[in-house]
Write a structure and sequence with these properties.
Largest sheet: 3 strands, antiparallel
Oligomer: single chain
Strand content: 5-15%
Shape: elongated
CATH class of the largest domain: Mainly Alpha
Radius of gyration: 18 Å
Number of helices: 5
CATH topology of the largest domain: Arc Repressor Mutant, subunit A
CATH architecture of the largest domain: Orthogonal Bundle
Order of helices and strands: HEHHEEHH
CATH superfamily of the largest domain: Winged helix-like DNA-binding domain superfamily/Winged helix DNA-binding domain
Strand order of the largest sheet: 1-3-2
Number of domains: 2
Distance between the termini: 26 Å
């Protein structure tokens, strides 16, 4: 992910989002160990303090936890917690702008559904 950060969102939030995505994808399993702050900072080419802030946020959300002297781990129930948080974020923050754009561009629900079905077919192929 190095260098591919978005300007509209804080880097620590993007790091937290990346970890959440990996949980949703199953590449980080519940009760599984995650990379140390130092390893993540090196991989993502960011300051360790930025990673620390991301990990603190994830801990506050009860997505990860720390075992003293052993590192960071994914909480039990993290997958469901991340799904719920991401759904709320999508519904409350993304969809209103999306719907406004659909209205302004006069895009019909049928057009959106057709594109979404094509998208899903491409994912399963």
């Amino acid at each position: 992910m190095s260098g591919g950060f978005k300007k509209q969102q804080a880097i620590y939030e993007q790091i937290a989002d990346t970890i959440c995505e990996r949980i949703l994808q199953g590449t980080l399993e519940e009760d599984g160990k995650i990379s140390s702050i130092r390893e993540t900072a090196i991989t993502m080419e960011v300051n360790p303090n930025t990673v620390q802030r991301a990990y603190e946020w994830l801990q506050q959300q009860e997505i990860i936890y720390t075992k003293r002297g052993r590192g960071y781990f994914v909480n039990s129930g993290a997958m469901e917690k991340v799904k719920q948080t991401k759904k709320e974020q999508l519904i409350n923050e993304v969809l209103p702008d999306f719907f406004k754009s659909l209205q302004l561009l006069q895009i019909t629900p049928e057009e959106v559904l057709t594109k979404y079905q094509k998208f899903l077919k491409g994912k399963t192929s």
